[in-house]
Amino acid sequence: MFDISDKEFELLSEYIRKNFGIHLKKEKKGLLIGRLQNILIKNNIPNFSKYYEYLLSDKTGEAASVLANRITTNHTYFMREAAHMDYMKDHVLPYLKSTVEERDIRIWSAGCSTGEEPYTLAMVIDEFFGSDKLFWDTKILATDISDEVLNKAKKGIYGIEELKELPLGWKLNYFEPVGRDRFEIKPFLKDEVIFRKFNLMEERFFFKKPFHVIFCKNVMIYFEEQTAKKLVDKFFHWLEPGGYLFVGLSESLKRASSSLKYMEPGVYRKE
Amino acid sequence: MIMRLIKNLKLRVKLILTFVIVAILMIIVLGIGYVAMNKTADNDDRLYHEVTVPLTIIPDMLDNINDQQQLIAMSALADGVSYQEVLTELERYSLEMDEMYAQMGEVLTDEHAIELWHDLLEKYNVFSGFKTKIINFLKMDNKPAVVYAYSGAEMQKAMEDVEDSMEALAERLYEMGQERGDYNKSAFHMWRRKFIIVLFVNLLIAAYIVIVVLKSIANPLNEVIKAAEKLVVGDIEAELRWESRDELGYLSDTFRKIIAVTKQQAAVLQTLAENDFTPDIHLRSEKDVLNRSLAEMIKNSNDMVRKIATASEQVAVGAEQLSAASKEISQGAAQQASALEQLTASMEEISVQTGENAENAKKADKLAEAAKSNADNGNHLMQDMLKAIEDISVSSKNINKILKAIDDIAFQTNILSLNAAVEAARAGNYGKGFAVVAEEIRALAEKSAEAAKQSGELIENAMEKVAHGTKIAGETAEALKRIVSGAEEVASLVGSIAAASEEQAIGIAQINQGISQVSEVVQKNSATSEEVAASEEALRHQAEGLKDIVESIKFKEFTDEKTDFELSPEVLEYLESIYKKKYQTNVVCPDEENVSTSLVAVPSDKEFGKY
Ligand SMILES: C[S@@+](CC[C@H](N)C(=O)[O-])C[C@H]1O[C@@H](n2cnc3c(N)ncnc32)[C@H](O)[C@@H]1O
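The joint structure predicted for all components is written out below.
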């Protein structure tokens, strides 16, 4: 078992905070050790100071990438926070359908983890539009910092256990079995989601157009308030007027700092 | 002064008084009008009676006298006129004349006219005298006398006098009429002026009074209306300065009270707005609905806030405990995961090592086998070697013999060379060259002897070594024999190790599979609990925020009995159970620094499709 000194922990957590936004409090020492020790073992690194040096000296970005893979918490599942999916279906999509020009709806799932969230969204959208879907471009942008989860997301293969929240019809419509107890998202639905690596700590965002809807759920719970605020400001900037921002049900924006209108738990709207 | 007086009168009195005064003023105006009209009517009456009436009589009188004259003339000049008829006619005219005269006498008031009237009577009487004479002549039917008398100058004069007198009277009457008319006109003008003046003055007075009264009503009303309008739009800074002892003063006072009360209520609401629910409300009367509702609202708010406060406190405590608990859990899970991961790592290592072991064992087996055959080989070679050493020993002895022979030859050569040297010396100069050669040969012989000696020594040495070698080789052969048997044993042992290692490797692989399954679960568990801890933390912040908000509200401690807010027993039990574990949360946040995101270590993708 590796040990980490206060100094080492400070250096590493500062690095992580700066680069990934994730804020590790002192009590997360154990977590840090647990998640990183294998990297040390695999790379034959004797201690965390050496690891930190290695991290800084590595110019390929590989080390940082691996760190991102390890340090992020990627918990997610299909139909998570179903209230928000209902809200999409009952309020957001009807609004977008009647107002959006050029039939181009832009939705961003920021911090998509292993893809359950954007795929669930794609299913909601598919069901909502039905046969009209043909005439609409509703491709979802799904981003994450960890390429490990992105790879899993792109593969779109999930265990039977992971599908249990989904209605039977959806399981039939959107999945096909591959091997024992494993199911793969059907190609047409996979095509509805564009997976990309994107670091939310990026100083400036460069997108072609603002979004109608941004999902950034259970990502900012790992961030410091200051970091989260900055990010929310950026989201606000990249929202169309009348666009929606979804955060996790347990999250709340300090609304004084942003001009987003509270709609219901976890749902905010740019006026 | 009047203003003050009017101001303080009761509204009803004020209005009645105004009405009465205006009425009186109107009556005065009407009275004047009435008097003026009466006067004018009087004057017209007098004009009529004193002038018009006598004036209408005079033409009748003139007609009468003319008729009488004609009658008399007719009786004098025409024939066949019955004097009887004339007499009755004259009689009738006379009576008529008397009547008219008397009538005239009744209406005449003017002295001069009366004088003229008397004069007329005199003249008429003269005429009547002549008339009587003529009547007498007629009675006597003395026509010529009648004619005479009638056409007599005196008679004519009397008649003319009567007419003149009548005309004089008429003239006088005309004159009077004129005077009377003038008088009447001026009187009328005077009254009209009086009337207009009074009317005007009264109107002014009435207007003044009405205006004053209206003002005394309208001013306070306007002030009240203005204040009311301000109140309506919510401006409670309305001011009302009117003061008087009438109803309007009372109205203003009341309104001032309303403003004061509204201000009070506003202050109360302001306090409420500042989240202070402690103000006391006093009912102003039994029917004070507003304050009653306000008090009720405050009481309810207090109750509610107290409930919320209790609840939020409990929620905050609960959230803190939950958050502490989930932190603990997540830490546990993280440790679990980390331990498992470590275990996996070690297991991997072990499995690698077992694999290596098996491999090594196999290798060792092979090596042992090889060693055995090598040892066998060695043994054979050893025998060969021993034989070879023997051969060497024999050869060495032979060499020794040869060396002896060489030594002998060298000795003889030496002697020969000495002899040669002597012979050379004897030969003198000619033998010089030969002497050199002889010397050379001697040296060579010496060297040969030396070398032979050394070789002999070496051979001696070698012989010794060979003896030693033979001994060692014997021992080695012995050892090799032992090695062979040992290697045999090793080979069999290593064989069984290899088999065991193989079995072990399979077992470890199975264990590894199990561990990685467990690890996956634990990993997921750790992620889940991490997530739960993080969102619980977020919730805890919100609960704390709620508590802070509620704490910023001031409220009364207790207003009635049952305000205790009850959490459901399950929740309480749960909180209790957590509490018992006495988690202590000591969250240390590192100082906030400005996050400088210069260049993030994990670069994002560059291309986002339609995005
Ligand atoms: C807990 S998951 C949330 C998944 C999904 N949104 C949900 O609510 O189920 C958080 C994700 O945010 C990602 N993340 C954390 N920091 C990030 C950053 N700086 N940039 C992009 N993604 C980040 C992590 O990789 C992780 O997959």
